[in-house]
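Morning. Coffee machine broken again, so started the prediction first thing and wrote up yesterday's gels while waiting. Chain of 409 residues, entered below exactly as on the submission form.
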Amino acid sequence: MKKSVLMIGGGIQQVDSAQLVKDAGYRLIVADRSPNSPCFDVADETLIVDGQDIESITAYVMRERKRQNITGIFSFVNLTTTAAFVAHACGLPGIHPTAAVAAQNKALMKRNFSENGVATPAFYEVRSISEAQQAFAALGGHAMVKATNLFGGQGIREVHDERELQNVMTEMQGYSGYQGVLIEEIVRGRFVDLNGIFADGKFHRAGHIVSEFLTEYPEGNPISPIEHIIRCPGDVSTSDLDALYDLFERAHRGLGTDFGPVGADAILTERGPMLIEIGPRLHSATCSCYMVPSVMGVNAIAAGVRVMAGDDIRHSELEMSQHGAAMTRLVLWPPGNLSAVDGVDEARALDGVLKLYLHKGAGSTIPEYSNSTQIPLAVIAHGATPEAAEAVIEQATMLVRPSYSEAQT
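Came back before lunch.
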C-alpha cells in the first residue's frame, strides 16, 4: 500500500494543495470539522473532526496508522500546532510541539527573535491600558496593536491616536484574553512573503511574493491590514533576497521550527530586512499553488509533504526558473446583500487566469470591511510580463459583476 498522509484542515483554498499532494504520489486523508469540506472530494479517506481536537486526531492515527500506512501529518492552515502534537505523540516526523506553540503566538515568537538577534520591529508586551499607553508613548505615539493569537491579518490595527488606543486595546484583549497584546513599532517598506523547506538539516529556498496592504477602507476608516495586491516575483534585488532568506533561515533555526515546509512574512526597510512573523507551514495556495509555481517553477507543496512523510526531497521540485510574472488582486465590492454575481465563468475562462476565488456569492452579505477574511473575490493571473498579468486581472474583475438586493449608497 502506498504511503498515506494526513492533512488537517480542508477549506476551499486547500483543494488544489490537496490535489498536489496526491499528484506527488501520496494517498491523502483529510481531517476537517465540516462534513461538506470541499477537500473531501479529493481525499482518499476523510475524518470529520475539529482541527484543534488533538486527542481525537491522535487516537485516529494510533488506530489507523498500520491499516492505512500513515507516515506523515501536516497542515496548510493555522493548525500546525495540532499537527506537531499528533506527530510527536505518534512518533512521526515533525517539529517539537513547543516550537509549534511558539510559532503560533506572536509574543513568544517575538521574544525568540529578540533573544536570537533576529531583526524585527521594536515591540512591547502589555496586559493593561496603562502599560499600552506607556509603550505607545515610547514608540512616539504611533504603533501597530496586535492580538497575539490570531492569523490571516485579523486582530491587527495601526493606531496614531492615544484616544483610539483604548478602544483598540479592548478589541485586541477580547481576542487574546490573558495572553496579552503586542504594541509594535510601525515600519514602512516592501513586504515580502517567503517559502522554504528544511530537509536533512539543510535549508532550501522555495519562492517568494511581494505584497501591498490596505490599512484604511474607505480612506480614513482604519481596518486590519488587507493584503489586496500580490506580485511575483516582485521588485526585489538579489542582495536583498539573500539577506531576507538568511534572516528567514536563522529565525526558524532559533525557534526550533527547522523541519519541513516553512514560511515568513518579512519587510525590506531603510534600516535593512526585518521579520514580521514566521510559521511552520507554507504560505497560502495563492502563493504556493499558483504564483510561485507558474513564475518560478517551484513545487513547494510536493517537496514539503515528502519531508513530512519521511521521504527524500526531489531537487527538481525546488529548482528555480523564470516564467513571466503573476499577480493577485483581492477585490473589495461595496458592502451590502448580494442577490447575484454574474460573469464568473467568463472570467475564469480568460487566457492567463490561474484561479478565481468567489468567496461571496448570491445570498451572501458583504459587511463593512475590517479584515481580509471578508473579501468577496480574489483573482490570480499570469502573463509574459507584470503588465500583461495586470491586464488579465483588469479584464477579469470587469467581467465579474455583483448585484445587490437593495440600492447601495
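The first helix runs from residue 15 to 23. Going to sketch it on the whiteboard this afternoon.
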